[in-house]
Specification:
It is found in: Endoplasmic reticulum membrane. It is a single chain. Helices cover 62% and strands 3% of the residues. The chain is globular and about 50 Å long.
Length: 240
């Protein structure tokens, strides 16, 4: 038990919160506290029946415990953590803002595409953003394929097709990830480009770690140098 607690404490906070929510929700379904029918994405029920929780639960349920759940959770945990501790290190508010931006894109897409749960697409989005920000890393997929990181989302898409899953889910994750990557990492650095994804200040206030401002140990003019000079002057006077 202590090992589990220690492992949880070592996780970066956003990764810990999201993966923990996924595991807890799946456990609740397994224990029959809730059913998947109360969790899936349904725009009509959200708008007309005010079931707003579906905007969150549809991202946190990856199916019953099994190989598919384990596979998705490993990828979610791994690439969420590597993003948070990598390119988003020290920028927790930007990381949360990326979460919200991607979730909004997927909700808008889900209105027109019949997808019940959005968690797998969200995982693919995280993988896509990480892969584009780490283009030179060599990947090995189950010891069969060797490729560079930018091809990873497409390999996962192929693997999903081989398992008979809906390829639209992976395409949607790739598309949402590319939109974020283009607006954040490409367009602002082009000629006449502009950065549109600016994290609101209130999010920075809530999520970013605030470092204490350095306190001056000596407020007299000259600080420590003034003291040194004073001691030196005193020694000179003693010598005289």
């Amino acid at each position: 038990m202590n090992g589990i607690v220690a492992a949880l404490e070592e996780m970066p906070p956003v990764t810990r919160f999201y993966t923990g929510a996924c595991v807890l929700l799946t456990t609740a379904v397994h224990l029959e506290f809730v059913t998947p029918f109360h969790l899936y994405f349904n725009w009509e029920l959200i708008v007309r029946k005010y079931q707003f929780w579906r905007l969150i639960t549809s991202f946190c349920f990856f199916g019953s415990f099994g190989f598919s759940f384990l596979f998705n959770m490993i990828f979610t945990y791994r690439y969420c953590m590597m993003l948070e501790e990598g390119s988003f290190r020290g920028r927790r508010a930007d990381f949360v803002y990326m979460f919200l931006f991607g979730a909004v894109l997927m909700v808008l897409s889900g209105i027109f595409v019949q997808i019940l749960f959005l968690g797998q697409a969200f995982t693919i989005m995280l993988v896509y953003i990480w892969s584009r920000r780490n283009p030179n890393i060599q990947m090995n997929f189950f010891g069969v394929l060797t490729f560079t990181a930018p091809y990873l989302p497409w390999v996962l898409l192929l693997f999903s097709l081989l398992l008979g899953n809906n390829a639209v889910v992976d395409f949607m994750g790739i598309a949402c990830g590319h939109i974020y990557f283009f607006l954040e990492d490409v367009f602002p650095y082009q000629e006449h480009g502009k950065r549109f994804l600016k994290t609101p200040q209130w999010m920075c206030f809530l999520f970013d770690e605030r470092r204490p401002e350095p306190v001056a140990e000596d407020l007299r003019p000259g600080g420590f140098e003034w003291n040194v000079e004073e001691e030196e002057d005193g020694q000179n006077r003693d010598d005289l």
